[in-house]
Amino acid sequence: MDRTQTLIENIRLFKDIEKNKEIIRNILPVKESFDIIEKNIIIGSEKAYMVFIDGFVKDDIMLRILEALLPIEETEITIGELIHQKIPYIEVETFTDFKLMQKMVLSGAVALLVDGQDQGILIDAREYPVRSPEEPDLEKVTRGSRDGLVETIIFNTALIRRRLRDPNLIFEIKSIGKRSQTDVVIAYLKDFVDNKK
After folding, report:
1. This prediction's pTM
2. Predicted confidence (pLDDT) per residue in 70-127, tens digit
3. Residue 48 and residue 68: Cα distance in Å, rounded?
4. Three-state SS for 47?
């Protein structure tokens, strides 16, 4: 178990959303990996924060949830009220510790935190990327899963993250080629890479 995992083992959410965001940015590579998305919103009069992995979340469900949350005008709203009255989705639960949040976000759920609340909401709006059952032609002799990559970068990063739910997995996106400006993703495990080069 690495140092970061040990640090979050017993840490519960704070009521201060800025403290929570700081811890989340330490346990998930939000600023380093382009596929981990954070979104700041306002619910009623309170600051709120969402974090999720691009490629796992069903866009239409998230759009409906945001359409339900953004018009809220109540100045004080509890997590219970949000879950039972405002979020139009079935697969919703609360969480109070960062370890569960990290595990669920890396598995594809959306974490929602609201300022002033010491518990958050996990929205299971996952849609795992899937391919047809045929295996790639060139890899018939290899062991393990038979996932093959496709032309879409987000789909490919989600396929990899589905198999490797490690917070140290980083995807960096770059554009290469003078004229083609092709998007290329470099994937690596932060705790194995040689940072000297």
Report:
1. 0.81
2. 999 888 888 999 999 898 888 899 999 999 999 999 999 999 999 999 999 999 988 8
3. 14
4. strand
In whole angstroms, give the CA distance from residue 55 to residue 176. 22
Q: What is the per-residue pLDDT across 63-78, written as a single tens digit (0 to 9) for each? A: 999 999 999 988 888 8
Q: Which residues contact 92 (CB under 8 A, 6 or more apart)?
A: 83, 121, 122, 123, 124
CA distance 47 to 24: 16
Distance between CA atoms of residues 97 and 119, nearest Å: 8
Q: Please identify which residue in the block is written with the tokens 């770059």.
A: 174
Cβ atoms of 110 and 39 closer than 8 Å: no
HSE at residue 2, side-chain half, CA atoms within 13 A, is 10
